[in-house]
Design goal:
This protein is an alpha+beta fold. The chain folds into two domains: 3-43, Orthogonal Bundle (Arc Repressor Mutant, subunit A); 56-137, Alpha-Beta Plaits. The protein contains five helices and four strands. It has helices spanning 3-14, 20-27, 31-43, 76-87, 113-122; strands at residues 63-71, 92-97, 104-110, 130-137. The protein has a four-stranded antiparallel beta sheet. Strand 2 (92-97) and strand 3 form a beta hairpin. The radius of gyration is 20 Å and the shape is elongated.
Length: 150
């Protein structure tokens, strides 16, 4: 990957819907060379896909919550069962296995605290293997980006 590829990626992270012509112009390439480079980046897996970024507040998902999850056992079968279950929960935006004082960190979007309380009681605490959770409700989102530093 060279500097031109990195420039292409920076521009695409800012506007995934940019036309090939406009992308080529911004990066100092011919449209054919630009198209070929982007194709190569897609095929190699550097570009995994494209998505629309939505406003959670306008879609009744303004409450952002992080949840520490501690499992009752740290065995492969419990890890696998938990991960498989969490993948099917639409409220969970991200799930990360972490090292430290707990096993998983979840990022969850909900309508409000009542919706979160229902999710916690009816869904998350009923997942097999969950021993304990700690909730951190976000008061202010200072920075949120999907762009990687290039």
């Amino acid at each position: 990957m060279d500097q031109t590829d990195r420039k292409l990626l920076r521009v695409l992270q800012g506007d995934g819907r940019i036309t090939n012509q406009a992308l080529a112009t911004q990066c100092g390439l011919s449209p054919a060379a630009c198209f070929e480079r982007v194709r190569r980046l897609r095929e190699s897996g550097v570009i995994r896909g494209y998505a629309a970024l939505l406003d959670p507040g306008k879609l009744d998902r303004s409450l952002l919550v992080f949840i520490e999850v501690l499992l009752d056992r740290t065995t492969d079968d419990v890890f696998t069962a938990f991960a498989n279950h969490v993948r099917d929960l639409p409220e969970v935006l991200e799930c990360h296995m972490v090292a430290g004082g707990f096993d998983y960190l979840l990022k969850v979007r909900m309508a409000d605290m009542d919706a979160y309380r229902a999710f916690l009681g009816r869904t998350l605490t009923t997942v097999p293997g969950v021993r304990e959770t700690r909730t951190y409700a976000v008061l202010e989102e200072v920075k949120a980006t999907t762009a990687l530093p290039l």
